[in-house]
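[job 4417] fold queue: 2 targets
>>> target A
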Amino acid sequence: MAASVFDSPLHARLFPVGNAGRLFTDSAAVRAMLLVEGALAKAQGAQGIIPELSAAAIHRASLEIAIDPGAIAAATGENGVSVPGLVAAFRTEMNAPEHAQFVHWGATSQDIIDTGLMLRLRQLLMLAEADLHDILAHLATQAETHAETPMAARTWGQHATPTSWGAVVADWGHALCDLRDALPALRDVSLLVSLSGAAGTSSALGPDAAATRAAMAEALGLGDPGRSWHVDRGPILRIADWLVQVTDVFARMGATLTALAATDLAEIGLGATGASSTMPQKQNPVTAGVLQALGHQATGLRAALGPAGRHMHQRDGAAWFTEWMVLPQLCLGAACALQHAGKIVATLQPDVDRMRANVDRTQGLIHAEALSFALARNLPRPEAQKRTKSLCASARDSGTPLETLARSAHPDLPDDLFSAAHSLGDAPAQARAFAARARTRAA
């Protein structure tokens, strides 16, 4: 088994990550850090901190020069960070020592690494938003089409009251809409440039360090935090939390779909995949299972990421290394969940007839709550509940439908009391409200 399922040729189709995989490679990290070095030099050249000619040369070289990650592996192992080796290799490749001497002027390794990471996380969030857009469009269609398609709601795995398939879909969809709508604020407070120098004091960056940071932020399209966040990992943790929440919604969806696709319910079709090596009749809900597994992984990774926010003093290697080990897996897990969820919602096949049949096979017990409230119109509520429970027990023991027993004892009950459509409540409205919400923002 590969060290990570996301890097495994064997498991590439089971745990696909789409274009997000390109963001979490050594080459992508090096490229991002070179872009940061170029933006820093350009800002400092405009301020006169370093010669403008040298700044232009550094900026141009940062766009053109490629550094082999393997070539700086030894230096990274010795120094604990990749930037010293990267800067040395970059200066050599520039082949212009009169300009190369001004590379990385006043910055520290963490400034370059953290800002480079933010460039990649920005791309990750853009990809996630695009995936959410497509997923919500499919869910909106399902919700609208099946706003009044009755099915059994289940609590603790048991029949509760009727709901609609559209309302079930809307529950997932509203949660995803909340996450989609949270993205602008998340970007504003988390996608930040880092430029504070060795101990977060900007002492080597000169008297106009704040202006340099602001110019660098503008050049890279990142936010200016107005301070050092070397040991305040809030920006990273907020993005991680958002990714975990996305993964959790899909894990919840996967769990419900797995149950609905089970042989005894068979209310949902999840495609033709999932063959067994020995049982020809099997069609396992593989994709739904992957979503649940990714949710389990995300929970563990978020817990492991916690210590990364507990830096000692002004920088802590152990906390920082923890972040490097955990965050990419968490990001790729969310990307994988989005890939699988997109596949699922595009091919969801609700079996409307089976849903209705499963409602009807409860002997009418699914309408017990509606019966108790109907009886409460003429009886004290406790007495109405007591009679309803007694009627339910009789229905179970005798195999007689609850409606037959209830109408025999109370002939004046409403005609439509035992109709699933009568008991849907605002489920259709919830489904249509979600569909409208998803499409309004998408437009």
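>>> target B
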Amino acid sequence: MNLLQIMKQLAGGMGTSIEIFTVTLLVSLPLGLLISFGRMSKNPVLRTVVKFYISIMRGTPLMLQLMVVYFGPYYLLGIRVGNGYRLWAAFIGFAVNYAAYFAEIYRSGIQSMPVGQYEAAKLLGYTKSQTFFRIIFPQVVKRILPSITNEVITLVKDTSLAFTISVMEMFTVAKALASSQVSMVPFVAAGLFYYIFNLLVASFMEYAEKKMNYYQ
């Protein structure tokens, strides 16, 4: 099997990797913001629960979390799941994991904002929600974008962990091809795919950062 044929077969797995990447971002970014609110809540019970959740997500391997999401319904609740649940388990596992990381990034950005901005907005008659979404949040996004970029790039590579629950993403396909062909070429091709994907993501995020540097 030549390199072109290998690349064609990997393309199908790449589609699944992109799907996991996209769904994870679409769910975890807004979910992370909500979790950050809970993390900063004045309610001690809610704050403790959210803090514990973040601690679990950041303190245990993503691979283990994917296995819990996939096998948990059967071993904990006795619910049998079909093969179609594998991809959904990957979506859920990745989303709840990355939401915890994004929550801490949001929190650091929000808490870095000067208190004076809140006070000034209150004097101008802004409500709390108007103050946050019109004044604070746009500045927070600008400040945390480099950290978000790092997590997004890491996510591209982490999609390979979906092989843990036998999701046929690109790394799983590459591993199967390498085993059948007794060759390292599929892994090299997969590495090239990941590099190009990451290069595109990094370029887009760099463009976004430049667009938000409107005072420079």
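[job 4417] complete. Note on B: The chain has a mean pLDDT of 88.
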